[in-house]
Design a protein that fits this description.
The chain has 316 residues and is of the alpha/beta class. It has one domain (40-315): 3-Layer(aba) Sandwich (Rossmann fold), CATH 3.40.50.720. It is 56% helix and 11% strand. It is built from 10 helices and 7 strands. A 7-stranded parallel sheet has the order 3-2-1-4-5-6-7, with helices on both faces. Helix 3 (58-69) crosses helix 8 (254-264) and helix 6 packs parallel to helix 7. It is globular. The mean pLDDT is 95. The structure holds NADP nicotinamide-adenine-dinucleotide phosphate. NADP nicotinamide-adenine-dinucleotide phosphate (NAP) binds at residues 54-60, 78-80, 83, 107-109, 135-138, 160, 187, 189-190, 234, 236-237, 239-242, 254.
Length: 316
């Protein structure tokens, strides 16, 4: 009997010890990747030009400055020629002639996929393309039931968030595959990271679910070709999309997010949460029961919708 007791205690302690080791090594790895791991030398590793879509505001704009500070030349892709010129001017002012820029004006919501692809094939010809960031994105103006979303908003979300990333990747992959190196980053969203349902922003969250699965699957197809493909997941970031004017630890500025983002480019994880407070949020969210998360998120956005409608009725 005593021998049996001892065996059980030994076995349970052993399992406890293994679990503890797993937690400790997981934590050490997290500290390493979040705070200590140096960013890759993207220029040497992949090539001297980076393409960033939606680079005229928010995360995309902050990212082009990060990439320029690492010595990459920039292909700036956006829909507004004046904002594109302002971004190019700001880069020239900060980095002088060390960083070359080229501008590509394309409104993804009004351009067919094949046209996007053809345009990109034309502009990248002869350039040593190392990095592509599919960042351009649009969301709803506020929490909205699916049947109320304007058809042009649904169309625009699908075209900008889904089609543009797909067709631009289609133009760039053969070029990267030919030289056997390259990095592609798709900017996903905490609205779909596998943690939550996202009612009242359904089409937006679904578009990000597409990007996550697209990145995950295509990254396996091209791993042996030397192309590192990744979906990066931001939670809230203070930009014109979220309309959060103030930043905080959990709602960073676009600059803080983009710095974290750059540190992850080219590292193995196909889907990652690069900014450490967001990573903590995702850890906690994964622990909570789905039914509780679904209820809380729905109530939160219903409240937001009520406040938005109240504000609209006051303005009328
Ligand atoms: N901010 C967040 O909390 C958050 C959270 C999760 C994921 N994200 C994702 O992060 C990415 C960047 O978001 P953000 O917050 O930086 O948004 P943002 O400040 O609104 O910037 C979006 C960028 O996309 C461009 N864009 C929009 N529609 C376009 C179109 N039809 N054709 C070409 N370019 C277009 C915008 O151009 P203009 O300058 O002309 O408007 C702008 O440069 C998006 O994919 C978004 O879904 C953001």
């Amino acid at each position: 009997m005593a021998t049996l007791d001892f065996t059980v205690i030994f076995f349970v302690s052993f399992l406890g010890f293994i679990s503890l080791c797993k937690v400790v090594t997981g934590f050490i790895k997290w500290v390493w990747v979040m705070f200590l791991r140096p960013p890759k030398n993207l220029k040497d590793h992949y090539g001297s030009w980076a393409i960033v879509t939606g680079c005229t505001d928010g995360i995309g704009k902050a990212l082009v400055f990060q990439l320029a500070s690492h010595g990459l030349n920039l292909l700036l892709v956006g829909r507004n020629p004046l904002k594109l010129q302002a971004t190019a001017d700001a880069i020239r002012e900060r980095f002088g002639t060390q960083v070359k820029t080229r501008k590509v004006v394309v409104d993804f919501s009004k351009t067919s996929g094949e046209e996007m692809s053809k345009t990109m094939e034309g502009v990248i010809e002869g350039l040593d393309i190392g990095v592509l960031v599919n960042n351009a994105g649009v969301a709803y103006e506020g929490a909205t039931f699916f049947h109320e979303v304007e058809p042009e908003v649904v169309e625009s979300i699908i075209k900008v968030n889904v089609e543009a990333a797909t067709w631009i990747t289609k133009a760039v992959v053969p070029v990267m595959a030919k030289k056997k190196k390259g990095a592609i980053v798709n900017i996903g969203s905490g609205s779909y990271g596998g943690f939550l349902s996202y009612p009242l922003y359904t089409v937006y969250a679904a578009s990000k679910a597409y990007l996550t699965m697209f990145s995950r699957s295509i990254s396996l197809e091209y791993k042996k070709t030397g192309i590192d493909i990744q979906c990066q997941i931001p939670f809230y970031v203070s930009t014109k999309m979220t309309k959060f004017r103030r930043s905080s630890l959990f709602t960073p500025t676009a600059e803080a997010f983009s710095k974290a983002s750059l540190g992850w480019i080219g590292y193995g994880e196909h889907v990652c949460v690069p900014y450490w407070p967001h990573s903590l949020q995702s850890f906690v969210l994964k622990l909570l029961p789905r039914s509780l998360k679904d209820r809380c998120v729905f109530l939160y956005y219903l409240g937001m919708r009520k406040r938005m409608m109240l504000q609209d009725s006051r303005e009328l």
